[in-house]
Amino acid sequence: MRIREKSCVRLGLREGPEETLAPGGFDLVCTGQRRKGKLKTMNLTRLKPFHRGKGSTSNNGKSSLERKHTRMPILTRGLWILLAALVLVWAALPAVRAVSLLANFFHRSSPAAPNDLPVQTISFRATDGVQLAGWFVMVAPAAPTIILVHGSKGSRTDMLPWARFLSAAGYNILLYDSRGCGASEGWGITAGVREPDDVLGAVRYLQQRADLRSKRFGALGISLGAGTVLLAAAREPALLAVVADSAWADTSFQIARMSSLSTPLFPLPLLPYEPALINLLVGGNLAAASPLAVIGQISPRAVLLIHSADDQNATTPLSGERRLFAAAGQPKQEWIAPNGGHVGALAAHTAEYEQRVLAFFARYLG
Known about the structure:
Elements (H helix, E strand, L loop, with lengths): L1 E3 H6 L7 E5 L3 E10 L2 E12 L14 H39 L16 E7 L5 E7 L7 E5 L10 H9 L3 E5 L18 H14 L8 E6 L1 H12 L3 E7 L6 H5 L3 E2 L6 E2 L4 H9 L8 H4 L7 E7 L9 H10 L4 E6 L7 H4 L1 H15 L2
Parallel strand pairs: 7-8, 7-9, 9-10, 10-13, 13-14
Antiparallel strand pairs: 1-4, 2-3, 3-4, 5-6, 6-8, 11-12
Helix pairs in contact: 2-7, 4-5
């Protein structure tokens, strides 16, 4: 095939015998004749296909080296996207944990009334306006009334074992679902920040009942409810005697562990905004929810602290009970059950538990 010199130049061929790549992966041998130092004509001979080596040109005009350089930016961008996603997940972990600590969306329903107690279905408002659902057991209009407060994300049915032996002893009983639990209003708990308002609301409700001639009230709480009744009693003089079973002393441990996330290899440091977010969500100050700081204000009204020696709950160690008892004023009592675990003393030592609680209320509540 003959082509003119200009065409040969457009193809990028040089004078003299030369090899280049033709479309389709064939070699072209270019030979020509010179006239006065210029290439007049050039012959292009198509040869057999050749094997492409490193850096050879592909059908789309890009060498393998060029393709490699093209892939590298794509890989780099992918790594940056993955890193950014991991950072976002890490930054969101405190928020996820804060919501999971408080939220109580699942396994909530209206508790079924027990067959062995003559309960009245009631409702009342906490002092901050939250609507609460509960039961009232009227034993005698002239008898004192004891308010029962369940633990974290529980319901009034958790307190039925206490309601049974206390009502059998002659006390009226009010047991209710705390905010964010059971059939009460709210999307979740408040970790002890607003729950005392529930107890104060229960006291107001009892004070307004015309059929209750006795206005002598006590309270018994377990776990989160134990700290709650101590906080409430420090604010409410109408609570004459309180029993706190497996109480927490303060929220310092809870707040301290918000700074990191435990992993199998090492504690993962987290952004320190979780306590502030919880404060925002609950409308209060988590650090200020401290039974230890206020238990002394309950005196001269009576306090009974109950704890199991083998309580393994991280937020309610036995050392916390020791601190609470030391800070409480007189009159005060404590009972350390030899075993039973968290809130397990009643089940493990039923007779002694009931005897101690009934003796305490008989002495200080009547």
